Every structure is written in C-alpha cells, then in structure tokens.
Amino acid sequence: MSGRLASSAAMVLDGLSIDTRPRRIGILKSHDGVVLEASGLGQSLGGGAKIIGADGASIQGEVVGFRGEHSLIAPFDHGVPVSAGSFVEPDGHASQVGCGSHLLGRVIGARGEPLDGRALPPMRLSWPLAGRPRNPLDQARITKPLDLGVRAVNAVLTGGEGQRIAIVAGSGVGKSVLMGQMLRGADCDVIVVGLIGERGREVSDFLETKLTGEAKRKAVVVAVPADHPPLLRLRAAMRATAIAEFFRSEGKRVLLLIDSLTRVAHAQREIGLALGEPPTIKGYPPSALGLIPRLIERAGGEKRSGGSITAIYTVLADGGDTEDPVVDTARAIVDGHIVLSRTLAEQGVFPAIDIGRSLSRVMTDIVDDEHARAASRMRSLWSAYEENRDLVLMGAYNSGSDALLDEAIARRPELLDFMRQSADSRVDLPTARAALVESFGQ
To answer: What is the distance between the alpha carbons of residues 65 and 204, in angstroms, rounded to a whole number?
Structure first.
C-alpha cells in the first residue's frame, strides 16, 4: 500500500518545479503609528512586504525607507493586530500597474482592486507605477486648443491639449461643480480620475452626479477615501497617472483629473515625518513638496505616440491662503491656474472664477489674434473693477476720473453674466469665442 502511495505521490509531483532556495523572513521590531520597522527582511526600496498578524491574518505594505539595517514599511491597512516579533515576508515588487481597455467605465482602488462590485479580467499589459523616464525633447509642444465645455475657461483661459492646470480654491467654493462641468464637456478620448482623500460620501456623490453619460463610459476612476493609510492615498495618485500614461502611449487624448493634489502632499508629509525628515514650511518635509513636480511633470504631450495627457489638479487653499506651500509649488510648475473666489461664490456667480488672478500660460500660442485681444480687454475691465472695488463700494470714486474704470463699473453686470453657467450646461469653444469677441472685441 505504501508503495502505491509513493508511486501516486511521485506521479503528482512529477514535472513540478519546487523552489528549495531559502526564503528571507524578517522580524517586526517596532511600530510608531505610521510605519513598521523590521529586521532581516532584505527587500529593496519600493518592494512589497507581508506582515503576519497575531491572529494569523496578514497585511501588505511597501518598503519606504531604511534605518540602519532595518527596513521601514508603510502598511496598506491598519485593521490587523500586529505585535513585536511578528513575521515579515517579502511580497514581490509592487511597482507595476495593470492597464488595458477593460478599465474603462470601472472604479478601482489604490491597489487595482475593483470597487464597483464587478470582477476585473486579468490585465496582460502593465505600466510602471512611478512612470517611465522621458527625454524633455520628446515632449510635444502645446499647439491645439482643448474644448473644456466651460464658457469662461474656453474664452478667457483657453486650455490646450497636454496642458497642466491647477484649480486653486478653498472649501465650498465650487471646485466639484467646475470639475464635473469639465469632465462632461471635455473633448477627449479617455478620462482618468483620481479621487484622493475624499470623504466616502463625496466619492459616491461624484460618481453619481458628476461623472455621467458618455463621460462615465470612457472613464477610469481610482478612489481612496480619507480614512485609508497615507501610502494608499499616495499610490492612488501614482496609479491614476500611470494609467493615463499608458493610454497616452497608445496615442489617446487623455484628460487626467486629480482631486486633490493637496491631500497627496499631506499623505507624503505623514510618511516623510514618520521617516524622520525635518519639517519645513507649515510642517511639510522636503519630500512632500518635491513630490509635486515629479507627479505633474509626468503629464503633457508625447511626440512619438501623438497622444497627450491634459491634467487638472485641484489644490486646496486653506483659509483662502493662495501662498500656501503646496499652492505655490503647484502654481510654479503647471501651465496655468484657475483661482476660485469665495466672494463671487457668495454672490451666486458659478463657476466662481477670479479672472484677474487666473492665467493660462499657453493661450497666446493656441488662439487667434482677435480672440486674444478680446480676452485681454475683458481681463482689463475685470481687473480695473477688482483693484478699485473698495472705493466703488464706499462711494469714494468720482465718475469720470478713469475711463477704463467707468466702463468696468458700467459693464460689471455684463461681466458677471458672461461668467455664469449652470452646472448641467455645456458651452463649446467656438460658441464661447464668438460670445467673447462680440461682447469685448475691439
């Protein structure tokens, strides 16, 4: 009988490749609330790790640094009880992102897991999570305008294919409404949305009210709520950018929206401070501010494939402070910024875009001279009123002292009406240009 069992076992094992090499197992040494410290792991930076909890369950994480000979691991979850002495195993290298057309119309998490209740097919194609190095000379110039469906943006802050735009605003000023208008109105092939650090309710609301119709069918959403660990929030932004890069490499015109860049920087701040980095302005370590240009520079056009990533990043200006380090760093690297005004929002003007403080750095390269002159005229009238707003409201300005200001005061209602647009309407680029030239052309 034993001979038959041995023969059967030999038949089952025949042809199997058994790895008899020793595996390196680490030991958990400490936990400071954000990162775990393990000895003896030997995993490279960015490599995956699996921590075995006291109850036998495991959590995954990523090696984010070293302290002496110990590995510092940021966990993906905090729901498993771990203790000093727990085993830590290598868990592959989590640096690749599964990509493909099967992602269109889907909602996934930071690790690529489906969140919409439907299974994902195996992904045969992949893209590096941190992106592929690009020669600056391979980046395409921005020469074509992009229709974003918002009259004020199309007319006065005209965007181009491959442009990087920052939407700067405080809370409750209408960022989500403006993003929804752009998503539904944008003329593009693929939409990639990264919802980073939002409240769970806001994620559901965004998917049901802002991303609808045709936009939903060609969109990929990567969502990580605010209660998730900082590493997952950081990886979600990188995954969304990697997916956008993949579709760009196929020659697609991609619209990438990250909401919000500030919460991505907050996630890196938590990790950086836990690793012992010195805090600088407003507590941000160097790695948090250094992450912003690395992430933004991955967007743009590509000469080789002909594809492009037009990226929109929302940036929170806490308390209306537009000199916040994250705001300042993002504004310095993007190709244009849209500043939303709380004063306009309180007046019922939506989208509440402050034309005088907003700018498109590529507009002069992609619009005709008549369009540029009309936009400049409207900006002049807007700025003249805003700069003298207090004098006008107090009645201290004497009519006739300044011809430009007189016109700005007289046409203020017209300016505000031009800015207003209902959330469910779309104004294409030719219509917006024609309205601008007719009203403010010279």
So the answer is: 35
How many angstroms separate the CA atoms of 161 and 147, rounded? 9
Q: How confident is the model at residue 93 (pLDDT cuts 50, 70, 90)?
A: low
Q: Please give the Cα distance from 139 to 85 (Å, whole number).
A: 50
Residue found by looking up tokens 């300016």 in the block: 415
Q: For 38-59, b where at least 16 C-beta lie within 10 A, e where not — what string?
A: beebebeeebbbebbbeeeebb
Q: How far from each other are the two terminal CA atoms of the chain, in whole angstroms?
A: 101
Specify the pTM: 0.89
Q: Is 232 exposed, middle or buried (0-12, 13-18, 19+ CB in 10 A)?
A: buried
DSSP-derived 3-state class of residue 53: coil
**What number is the average pLDDT over the span 252-274?**
93
Under 8 Å CB-to-CB from 381, ≥6 apart: which residues? Answer: 404, 407, 408, 411, 415, 440
Query: Which two structure tokens, joined as six digits, stand for 298?
Result: 């991955």
Residue with tokens 């640094």: 65
pLDDT at residue 9, as a whole number: 46
**Length of the chain as a residue count:** 442
Quick check: 238 and 129 in contact, CB under 8 A? yes
Q: Rounded CA gap, 197 and 263, in Å?
A: 6
Lookup result for tokens 């509440």: 352
Structure tokens, 190: 């693929």
The per-residue pLDDT for 18 is 53
* CA 121 – CA 271 distance, rounded (Å): 33
What CA–CA distance (Å, rounded) separates 129 from 237? 10
Phi, psi of 440 (to 5 degrees): -125, 10
Nearest to 239 by CA among 334, 130, 367: 130
Quick one: which of 338, 107, 99 has its CA closest to 241? 99
The two three-digit tokens of residue 80, written as one number: 């498993």
Q: How far apart are CA 173 and CA 345, in angstroms?
A: 6
Burial of 308 per CB tally in 10 Å (0-12, 13-18, 19+): buried
Measured distance CA(96)–CA(112) in Å, rounded: 10
The interaxial angle of helices 286-296 and 261-274, nearest 10 deg, is: 140
| pLDDT, averaged across the chain | 87
CB atoms < 10 A from the CB of 262, how many? 23
Sequence-separated (6 or more) residues with CB below 8 Å from residue 307 = 247, 248, 249, 250, 251, 252, 253, 254, 301
